[in-house]
Amino acid sequence: MVIKVLLAEDMHMVRGALVALLNLESDIEVVAQVAAGDQILPTAKSVRPDVAVIDIDLPGKDGLTAAMEIRESLPGCHTLILTSLGRPGTVRRALDAKVNGFLLKDAPSGKLADAVRSVMIGRRVIDSELALAAWETDDCPLTTREIEILRVTARGRTVADIAAELFLSPGTVRNYLAAIVTKLNARNRVHAIRIATDAEWL
Questions:
Q1: DSSP 8-state secondary structure symbol assigned to residue 126
Q2: What gap in Å lies between CA 48 and CA 22, rounded to an integer?
């Protein structure tokens, strides 16, 4: 059986290298590739991949949010998150999002194909040391949506920009930001971003 893979990576050279690497495997075929997070779910619905390999940091929508959308809409598709950041907070967010695998981009090349095969048969693929460190970190009080909004805010976007990017009303964005500041006991949005960054929640 050939495993059908959707690959989401915004860096063109990296995406091309990953596609070439996976297509070298006789039992793996990359059937679609996208460069933005908001393209993942529509493409997945169209091509019905067995495994979605998703970079955690994508324009339009972050990889973990897209992975959760796939889990809800296409439960038969397994998700494998790629990241260049091995921070415990990042791993914890991946675990909380119930992704099937979490792999560092600097892992040996052969690990990617093995990880695709493993998540395909229902195994969880997460580095044991990173997983242990993740469980030892404090729980994040923010929801996935709140983290997404705070991450976009950290890029210097205005409320109007955030609303347009995430398809929300400006009032809803302000309500989210107020809730974030309250939950983190922050003085303001900038302080909230600093708290979340230090805790590795972003």
A1: E
A2: 17
Tell me the two tokens of residue 16: 């091309």
39, 92, 143, 166 from 2: Cα distances, Å: 23, 31, 36, 35
* Cα–Cα distance measured from residue 20 to residue 64, given in angstroms and rounded to the nearest whole number: 24
pLDDT digits (tens, 9 = 90+) for 36-50: 999 999 999 999 999
Q: Specify whether the CB–CB gap between 142 and 180 falls below 8 A.
A: yes
Which amino acid is present at 103? L
The answer to whether the beta carbons of residues 193 and 153 sit under 8 Å apart is yes
Q: How many residues does the chain have?
A: 202
What contacts 139, CB < 8 A, 6 or more positions away? none
Mean pLDDT of the chain: 88
Q: What is the pLDDT of residues 74-124, one digit of tens each?
A: 999 999 998 876 666 677 777 777 889 988 887 787 889 999 999 999 998
Cβ burial of 125 (10 Å; 0-12, 13-18, 19+) is buried
Q: Model-level pTM greater than 0.70?
A: no
Say how far apart CA 25 and CA 15 lie, in whole Å: 16
Give the C-alpha separation, 2 to 30, whole Å: 10
